[in-house]
Amino acid sequence: MFTTTAKFVIAIFFLVGTLTGEAQKKFGGLALYTVRDDMGTNVRATLQAVSDANYKNIEAAGYADGKFYDMTPKDFKQLLKELDLRPISSHQATVTLENADAMIADVKAAGFKYFVIPIPPMGLFKYDQTSQSMGMTGGAANLANIINTIGKKCKAAGLKLLYHNHDFEFKKDKDGIVPIDYLLEHTDPKYVNFQMDLYWVTKAGADPVQYFEKYPGRFKIWHVKDMDDQGRFAPVGNGNIDFSRILAHKKLSGMKYYMVEQDKTFTMKPLEAIKVSHKALPKIGFH
Q1: In this predicted model, what pLDDT tens digit does every residue of 211-268 receive, in sequence order?
Q2: What is the pTM of this model?
Q3: Which of 34, 52, 204, 285 has the highest CB neighbour number within 10 Å of its CB?
């Protein structure tokens, strides 16, 4: 028979073990663009759901007028802390050479490590509604100069700048230049690195691993989202992208973090889709 003291010790042991087990389940990151509509309705409840789905890291995609999701940088940082979420990266689509300093200060104040430029900024990004295709104007050299300049500002402030790709950067432009190759070759890794979106690379017909081999160490964050048989966005594990093959080259790529993202979830609600993706991550090898 156990003594009262022994029973107490055993109870504490199992309690600690249970709590530790729960803590170990929290891993990986989520790009909040996936749940943007929910974030627009109720920020706290949505972030609570993200935490409950056992994500640990977040990437913001809701900055405007000096605020993140209509919250001051300080308040947003505090909310994330309360919900046991870590600010890692933030998409800053509206950055310009003129507003970069103020925006960088806000990203820093909110606790983020990475300042991400998700599309060619300053009006260079173009979307054709008819063909539903993306592109840019101004040329790769112009874009490289812009992100190099902003990258230097980020480094001076203690942040790291990343450029996020879609598919068009992997296709030759009218001058025969592959924009992503030009950017990789004409930006200084001290100031500029990259967030590789594995879906869009695959959509463009390029191979992520070949880019890791050609430009090792340049891809600090990955966007992890799957592709179904129709070429549409799918929850991780519900598509045909060979993530295990890509993940085997994590070290070569330079990846420090990964963010689950699904631009559209179609018949599935976003908050349900993120659960499906998170459950699939460890089966692939993501931890």
Answers
A1: 999 999 999 999 999 999 999 999 999 999 999 999 999 999 999 999 999 999 999 9
A2: 0.92
A3: 34
| Residue type present at position 249 | H
Six-digit token pair at 281? Answer: 């991550």
**Tokens, residue 183:** 């950017």
